[in-house]
Design a protein that fits this description.
3-stranded antiparallel sheet
């Protein structure tokens, strides 16, 4: 039986995931507190009062900034306090709900990444806005949740001969018990996960961000090229539209 094995949200775009035993999703918000914050490059103009979706290249993110993967981050959804840990640095903590906390966080990333921030970065957030990769496509895609089929990851491992941590693909929902690549056929189909219904919106095309090992923070693969070479496309995973409000839990069954 296909079922959920893991649930994750990513409170800050480009930073580490928060594992969850259960998650609440809604039609209006998708997955609350997922990609709610981002770190805009010093060269990026982003209006927090009238936000417009921007390509991920306007923000710090793994495709360009693999050193982000070496940070272990936590963001409390109640207090908005960010904690950052690194193997060779003192722990950092700041309240992102305050100007002082945001300024301290921006200074941390200038010190950590140097010129890669392209000037002084900004911690940005806007009510009702999500910094998902698909946000530039439509409001519905902005609120989509992303699904990773672990059988597809294993199929790619077998093709490349390389062990691959599924966290490379930064999905919200990990599923197992499906056939490899079955998720790619869910576009425009209704998918039942637990008691909730979803609709397949689009396959998830993969960029160079997945080449970064989430444990070592090294670029140790060319997975978009490998997927195309072995399977004839560049997709792994699928975006789902939330059709009903409710809760998902690890162990919930999946049918499409």
């Amino acid at each position: 039986m296909a079922a959920i094995t893991d649930l994750y949200r990513y409170p800050i775009k480009g930073l580490s995931p928060e594992p969850l035993a259960a998650m609440t999703v809604s039609v209006a918000q998708g997955l609350p507190f997922d990609r709610d914050y981002a770190l805009a490059l010093g060269t990026t103009s982003f209006d927090t009062v009238a936000p417009q979706p921007l390509d991920k290249g306007f923000f710090l993110m793994l495709r360009n900034n693999e050193a982000l993967a070496a940070l272990r981050t936590r963001l409390d959804p109640g207090t908005h306090r960010l904690t950052i840990e690194h193997a060779t640095r003192d722990a950092f903590s700041a309240d992102l709900s305050t100007p002082e906390g945001r300024a301290a966080t921006e200074a941390f990333f200038v010190d950590y990444l140097g010129a890669a921030t392209k000037g002084h970065p900004r911690v940005v957030r806007a009510e009702g806005h999500k910094f998902t990769d698909a946000s530039v496509l439509s409001p519905v895609m902005m609120r989509a949740v992303s699904v990773i089929n672990l059988a597809s990851v294993r199929s790619l491992e077998a093709a490349t001969g390389q062990a691959l941590d599924p966290l490379r693909f930064r999905g919200n929902i990990h599923l197992d018990g499906l056939e490899p690549w079955a998720e790619l056929d869910w576009v425009d189909r209704v998918v039942q996960i637990g008691a909730l219904r979803f609709r397949g919106l689009a396959r998830t095309p993969r960029c160079a961000a997945v080449n970064v090992n989430p444990v070592t923070a090294e670029r140790d693969a060319n997975l978009p090229k490998a997927i195309r070479q072995h399977f004839g496309h560049v997709d792994l995973g699928v975006y789902l539209e939330v059709l009903a409000d409710g809760d998902l839990r690890v162990g919930d069954a999946v049918t499409a």
